[in-house]
Design brief:
Layout: E1 2-9, H1 14-28, E2 32-39, E3 47-48, H2 53-82
Parallel strand pairs: 1-2, 2-3
Length: 91
Amino acid sequence: MKILHLNYYESQGGAAIAVQRIHNALLAKNIDSQIIVSKKNSNNPKVIGPNSTFEEILNLLIISLFVVLNKIILLFSVFIVFFNYQPIIQS
């Protein structure tokens, strides 16, 4: 079995600590476990993250794009619910 954990930070914050504990427990049980992060602090080969400043900037741009798209979708869904919008279907 292969496990892949996704987290923003490698070692900062409660979620990162929890992911590290789960990851280490899985490795102790000989289960293949890796972590993908946006902010990497160590040289651990089981933790995958950006290797250069360019990759860090690219990650931030991608995350920002997803945040903007998420807000647009949320606003559109609020518009549909609030105004009881129903598309006009012409036949």
